[in-house]
Design a protein that fits this description.
Pathway: Porphyrin-containing compound metabolism; protoheme biosynthesis
Mean pLDDT: 95
Keywords: Cytoplasm, FAD, Flavoprotein, Heme biosynthesis, Oxidoreductase
Number of strands: 22
Largest sheet: 7 strands, mixed
InterPro entries: Amino_oxidase, FAD/NAD-bd_sf, Protoporphyrinogen_oxidase, Zeta_carotene_desat/Oxidored
Strand order of the largest sheet: 8-7-18-19-20-17-21
Distance between the termini: 6 Å
Function: Involved in coproporphyrin-dependent heme b biosynthesis. Catalyzes the oxidation of coproporphyrinogen III to coproporphyrin III.
Helix content: 25-40%
Family: Belongs to the protoporphyrinogen/coproporphyrinogen oxidase family. Coproporphyrinogen III oxidase subfamily.
Oligomer: single chain
Structural class: alpha+beta
Radius of gyration: 23 Å
């Protein structure tokens, strides 16, 4: 029988909680797992709140059902099943979204891959592609180890309008970043793989779509009927970790047998000795902890930048809303809002008999955070005014509202990001195999990616400590 371990997980988001579940399933019996969370609550960007007497997401709202590479259940769905929550999965009842262009709403064209079209004729309603630019040059679009900004590739092949009116708002809705800055390999891995073989961008999009196994009519997204907060609570229970909220880990030092954590206030800190540490905090706080034991790794990950956003949710009495899940706003439209979701239209389980609709708008783009300096009242007023403008009809006065600010929430992956992370992890593993990195800052955004990142890091810790046992 193996001796139990002591493992510290720094960061109580879904990445850390998924890691705790994996450790509990695979580590020796009696292993002590402690989760240190600097804020007062677990879950990170998964936060279910309440507005107008109804649960609503103040952070991420859904997860992908399938793994885009294999077609199997995504890591999020696998975790949901492991936690006994499969019966709570629900899917959107309205899937069509729109783009706000030229002062009106137009349906987002089908057949695109994160806005990059595989059929140029289908995007003519929102953008005019460059004529004859996507020619076969006799070689693949990307070299074997090459990475480029999404915007650079698409502008070269399809022209500015396709990027500005379609690709940029699609990426902005996910990353709050710009297509001209974001890595193709990180944000669109399937397209990057196809671009290493195909000679045209249309061909690469079609190849990537063909390679993605998906059953016709199968739902793409899911959430939980009780809110994603139920996933956080269930993962915390299953992981069986000691949870320390309002507990900042300030320093990290290697010892002869593992690691010593300095936790809490500067004047009278708590010193904790453990066998292994899993860092799931954002890249910059991780870099501060790594500066002593692994300065090269700290320098590599500490340069990652983040975008801040605000999510404004309004409860509107019987508004006139189109039968859409929501809409995206290109930056060229000059509006403060960059996206909006009609919660009670998109999700049938949220519809109310009293006619109150829940509408959420997202504010904040990378490099243009001045809008987030507005007060909550000014943000609400601006969002209400702009929603009315886009919809072409005055919206009723909200009966309730909520403003959720997420500072430094969304990583900005510049070209070469995954190679830099891989090199940093190789260096860290060689020097300190019982210290691992996981989370959105390294592997990508989205609940499935974060879950898989935490589980993979947990497996690395298990291997470093000598394998599983009972």
């Amino acid at each position: 029988m193996r001796q139990p371990w002591r493992v510290a997980i720094v960061g109580g988001g879904i990445t850390g909680l998924a890691a705790a579940v994996r450790l509990r399933d695979r580590a020796p019996a009696g292993t002590e797992i402690t989760v240190y969370e600097q804020s007062g609550a677990l879950g990170g960007k998964l936060r279910t709140g309440e507005i107008a007497g109804q649960p609503v997401e103040f952070g991420a709202e859904s997860f992908l059902m399938r793994d885009s590479a294999t077609g199997a259940d995504s890591a999020a769905v696998t975790l949901v099943r492991r936690l006994g929550l499969a019966d709570a999965i629900v899917h959107p009842t309205v899937g069509q979204a729109a783009l706000a262009v030229d002062g009106g709403l137009r349906p987002i064209p089908g057949g695109t891959l994160v806005g990059v079209p595989g059929d140029l004729d289908r995007v003519a309603t929102v953008a005019t592609p460059a004529a004859d630019a996507d020619r076969d040059g006799g070689r693949p679009l990307l070299g074997a180890d090459e990475d480029v900004a999404v915007g650079a590739l698409v502008r070269d092949r399809f022209g500015d309008q396709v990027v500005d009116r379609l690709v940029d708002p699609m990426l902005g809705g996910v990353y709050a970043g710009r297509a001209d800055d974001l890595s193709l390999v990180t944000t669109m891995p399937a397209l990057a793989r196809a671009a290493r073989v195909e000679h045209t961008l249309v061909g690469a999009v079609r190849a990537a779509q063909a390679a993605a196994p998906r059953a016709p009519g199968a739902p793409v997204f899911g959430t939980l009927a009780g809110g994603l907060g139920t996933l956080v609570a269930a993962a915390a229970r299953a992981g069986g970790a000691t949870v320390r909220t309002d507990a900042a880990v300030r320093e990290l030092h290697p010892t002869a047998t593992g690691w010593r954590l300095t936790v809490g206030p500067t004047r009278d800190p708590e010193l904790v000795d453990v066998d292994a540490v899993l860092l799931t905090v954002p890249a910059r706080p991780a870099a501060r902890l790594l500066a002593g034991p692994a300065p090269e790794v700290a320098a590599a990950v500490g340069g990652l930048d983040y975008a801040s956003v605000a999510l404004v949710t309004l409860a509107l009495p019987e508004p006139e809303l189109p039968e859409l899940s929501g809409f995206l706003v290109p930056a060229t439209e000059g509006l403060l809002i960059k996206a909006s979701t009609f919660f009670t239209t998109k999700w049938g389980h949220l519809r109310r008999p009293d006619g109150i609709a829940l509408v959420r708008a997202s504010v904040g783009r990378y490099g243009d955070e001045t809008s987030l300096q507005l007060t909550d009242d000014d943000l609400v007023a601006t969002v209400h005014r702009e929603l009315s403008k886009v919809l072409g009809t005055p919206l009723p006065t909200p009966v309730a509202r909520h403003v959720q600010r997420w500072g430094g929430a969304l990583p900005q992956y510049t070209p070469g990001h995954l190679d830099r992370v891989a090199a940093a992890r190789t260096t860290l593993r060689a020097a300190h195999p019982t210290l691992a990195l996981a989370g959105a800052g390294y592997d990508g955004v989205g609940i499935p990616v974060c879950v898989r990142s935490g589980e993979t890091a947990a497996e690395e810790i298990i291997t470093a400590l000598g394998g599983s046992g009972s």
